[in-house]
Amino acid sequence: TGLGAKQDASIIVDYETDQVLLNLGEAGVGSGSQRVYTKGDANDAQANDDLWDALTNGHGIEPKEPSYGFEIGGSRVTQESADQWHTVSFEQEIFDAHVVLGPASSEGEQALTTRVRNVTEFGFEYQIDEWDYLDGKHVEVSVSWLAGSQGGYELEDGSKVTIGKTAVSSGYTASVDLLGYDEAPTVIATLSANNSSQALSHRIDDVSNDGFSFFLQTEEAAFDQFESLEDEFMYWFAIDAAETSNIFNSGQLGTNHNYRKTDAIFDEELGFFAGMQTANGSDTSTLRYDVGDDDYIYLKVQEEQSLDIETKHLSEQVDWFTAEEGTYLISEWL
Any residues with CB less than 8 A from the CB of 49 and at least 6 apart, and which? Predict the structure, then answer.
């Protein structure tokens, strides 16, 4: 095949668009696995021996339907240097995977953000990214992650999910349109770091049943001094948990620079996700969470201190949810 032993590859035979696509993972990252997937009805191609041999290169590889999955996980990691990345592998392949991260736990006083890169159907990498004025090392923290196939669908409990990604650029506010929601969903997002090493945060605002807006922030000492954002984008998940959901426990609160109590009880088997749905305070900030002596989860808005030591922040609306780690079935495409 010409591929290295540590480079993953997948072939997607798309009968809906009459295309054969080759997706290559990053060189030197992976196990050398090679898989064939199909989209649409393969019966016509399988009935034609010459066509089938051409598609499978004569090896008789039996393709399988792509796994349009939804998976939740988490880990505790130590950021030993500014250029260290942490690898996550999915339990099963997720076709056209997109990934968002929950807030980092409270360990370590230094302010931080998080980024992801090299997202494939097999997994992804992420980083605990301290702001650029800091040394990039951070003590062990917990982070939850959520991965799913791009598109809009219902989960088995009736919860509605839309998953997408939007190209990002400096110095402007972008908007995202949503369909199929009767009320404002919870929006969780994470920025990619495919080329840029600059620490950045995203701010969500104007969330409604038909969309939301967002903009990017650098640390305050480098206000609007963005590095090149070519090939960078924001992954986002819009989730409307069913009233009788057996997957999501969700809620909403107003919080600022002080920790505020949620209704979520901490459990190591649960993923925890939260996102600011407003941008009332203009200073660069992200969310952090802590677990109280009462085992409830507390949330606060954490500002970085590259320009000054003041960290007070206006109250923001924060939506949160917990869900058991594992994989979930898509019930119906929207």
Answer: none
- The average pLDDT across 186-201 equals 94
pTM score, whole prediction:
0.81
Phi, psi of 2 (to 5 degrees): 85, 0
